[in-house]
TrEMBL record:
<feature type="domain" description="Caspase family p20">
    <location>
        <begin position="267"/>
        <end position="362"/>
    </location>
</feature>
<protein>
    <submittedName>
        <fullName>CASP8 and FADD like apoptosis regulator</fullName>
    </submittedName>
</protein>
<dbReference type="InterPro" id="IPR015917">
    <property type="entry name" value="Pept_C14A"/>
</dbReference>
<dbReference type="InterPro" id="IPR011600">
    <property type="entry name" value="Pept_C14_caspase"/>
</dbReference>
<dbReference type="GO" id="GO:0004197">
    <property type="term" value="F:cysteine-type endopeptidase activity"/>
</dbReference>
<dbReference type="InterPro" id="IPR001875">
    <property type="entry name" value="DED_dom"/>
</dbReference>
<dbReference type="Pfam" id="PF01335">
    <property type="entry name" value="DED"/>
</dbReference>
<dbReference type="GO" id="GO:0005737">
    <property type="term" value="C:cytoplasm"/>
</dbReference>
<keyword id="KW-0053">Apoptosis</keyword>
<comment type="similarity">
    <text>Belongs to the peptidase C14A family.</text>
</comment>
<feature type="domain" description="DED">
    <location>
        <begin position="11"/>
        <end position="78"/>
    </location>
</feature>
<dbReference type="InterPro" id="IPR001309">
    <property type="entry name" value="Pept_C14_p20"/>
</dbReference>
<feature type="domain" description="DED">
    <location>
        <begin position="97"/>
        <end position="177"/>
    </location>
</feature>
<keyword id="KW-0677">Repeat</keyword>
<dbReference type="Pfam" id="PF00656">
    <property type="entry name" value="Peptidase_C14"/>
</dbReference>
<dbReference type="GO" id="GO:0042981">
    <property type="term" value="P:regulation of apoptotic process"/>
</dbReference>
<dbReference type="GO" id="GO:0006508">
    <property type="term" value="P:proteolysis"/>
</dbReference>
Length: 472
């Protein structure tokens, strides 16, 4: 399997070029990515990121960009500031917004500000820590506060108050802006929930579990109505929702979050451009391990934006087998596709209850994991776990992984045809299921003329209404 990384010579050159403050900034930016780093050493950090398939030219360029080392972007990676900014605008950043904010704030503080902060934090840090903090940087102080559980991505009130007290209202406003925009991060008991997700999920029925949802959300509305709440369950016999129309509401701006996880690296840009054109908020991630993918699925499922959006899309490209994906892991069982779906069901993501949830999966099946089939388009339910919860559409293509060996840079025909159809202005006027019937036909014709690159296609859904991505 191809290993995506950065040449060791480049890593060595970057390490030699960074000064002490820049090395500290890089270690701070990556603290969440490698929490188990044995010592604060940049070389060890870069090697660990590389070993865990987390260090690519794209992610390394982001780190250099955050440290404003635009010269190294050009000299070592052969790219420029504008190119990195364009990529970040299309694909979410690897480094958390919280760590980026703290790093930027550290650049705006002078020595007097730091001394004042240490004095104000005297009771919180304790005298022993105060003595240690006197000659330390802002990032070192923040790291110490994190260890004491006084500061975290969700808890910045202490630092905000300190900035107000030292008359740095500009920095306090930046924290307030972050608190308003940033998603909630799992802490405390939430982390236990994240660990519990390692276990397999129970089999789910067509009914989203009974729960309290607001009237407007029943129509996939934009905002919660707090004044009146009702209980909702969807019976397996096909009952309809109160006041439900014949089509899903698709009017929010953006229409919803589109999560792209491409562990092959050939299709992410094409997919991202297509769903941006469809007015989705695109979050794109390349070359994730199974652990990092699980964390990302958990984070996206908890986004507050879902309550205001009308839809959710997940596109996944990976090697795997008929039941799961391997991501960038080289051994062990795959990540169950049933689990991918389960992050976004009504019980685990109430803000998506009653709203369409679309999954498009391109799985490259490794030798020994592929079930033989004789049809050109395989729709046998045994090939994958069928999504049984309401309002889900599941479209999955499986191809032999040998395709990647013969043509390592080739795009998935399934995803190419899908994106072409979705952005076609005439096709977009059709219900999504009609578009996917056309996709089936294209894959059928492809298989007839490309015997060495066969696609097995599965299309399952529990949609209750017509779905138009055009918003008509």
């Amino acid at each position: 399997m191809t290993v995506y990384g950065v040449p060791a010579a480049h890593l060595h050159q970057i390490e030699q070029e960074l000064d002490t403050d820049e090395k500290e900034a890089m270690l701070f930016l990556c603290r969440d990515l490698v929490p188990d780093l044995p010592m604060p050493d940049v070389r060890k950090l870069l090697l660990t990121l590389s070993e865990r398939s987390m260090l690519t030219p794209v992610s390394l360029s982001e780190l250099l960009y955050r440290m404003k080392r635009y010269d190294l972007l050009k000299k070592v990676l052969g790219t420029r500031k504008a190119a990195v900014e364009a990529n970040l605008a299309m694909c979410p950043q690897m480094v958390s917004k919280y760590r980026v904010l703290m790093t930027e704030i550290s650049e705006d503080l002078d020595k007097d500000d730091l001394n004042s902060l240490v004095f104000l934090l005297m009771n919180d840090l304790g005298m022993s820590h105060v003595k240690m903090a006197k000659d330390k940087s802002f990032l070192a102080i923040i790291t110490e506060l994190e260890k004491l559980d006084l500061v975290s991505p969700n808890h910045l009130d202490l630092i905000e108050t300190c900035f107000l007290n030292i008359h740095r209202k500009d920095l306090a406003k930046r924290i307030q802006q972050y608190k308003w925009e940033a998603p909630v991060h799992p802490t405390g008991s939430s982390l236990k929930c994240a660990n519990a997700l390692q276990a397999s999920f129970p089999e789910l029925s067509l009914a989203d579990p009974p729960g309290i949802v607001n009237k407007e959300r029943l129509l996939n509305g934009a905002r919660a109505v707090q004044a009146e709440q009702i209980h909702l369950s969807i019976p397996e016999t096909g009952g309809t929702l109160p006041q439900a129309s014949g089509k899903y509401r698709m009017q929010s701006q953006p229409l919803g979050v589109c999560l792209i996880i491409d562990c092959i690296g050939n299709d992410a840009v094409m997919i991202a451009k297509s769903f941006k054109a469809l007015c989705f908020e695109v979050r794109c991630h390349l070359f994730l391990t199974m652990d990092s993918m699980m964390r990302e699925l958990y984070e996206v499922a908890r986004l507050r934006q879902h309550r205001d959006y009308d839809c959710f899309v997940c596109v996944m490209v990976s090697r795997g087998d008929h039941q799961g994906v391997f991501c960038t892991n080289h051994s062990g069982p795959g990540f169950s596709l049933e689990r991918v779906k389960s992050f976004f069901t009504g019980d685990r993501c109430p803000d998506l209850s009653g709203k369409p949830k679309l999954f498009f999966i391109q799985n490259y099946v490794e030798p020994g994991n592929r079930r033989e089939n004789t049809s050109l388009i395989e729709a046998d339910g045994n090939l994958c776990t069928i999504p049984q919860v309401a309002d889900i559409l599941w479209s999955q293509s499986m191809s032999d992984a040998s395709i990647l060996e013969r043509s390592p840079n080739s795009s998935s025909y399934y995803l190419t045809a899908l994106t072409d159809l979705l952005i076609d202005p005439h096709k977009r006027m059709l219900p999504l299921l009609d578009i996917l019937v056309e996709l089936n036909n294209r894959v059928y014709e492809w298989n007839r003329t490309n015997l060495s690159q066969q696609c097995s296609l599965v299309l399952k859904h529990t949609l209750r209404k017509k779905l138009f991505l055009s918003g008509i």
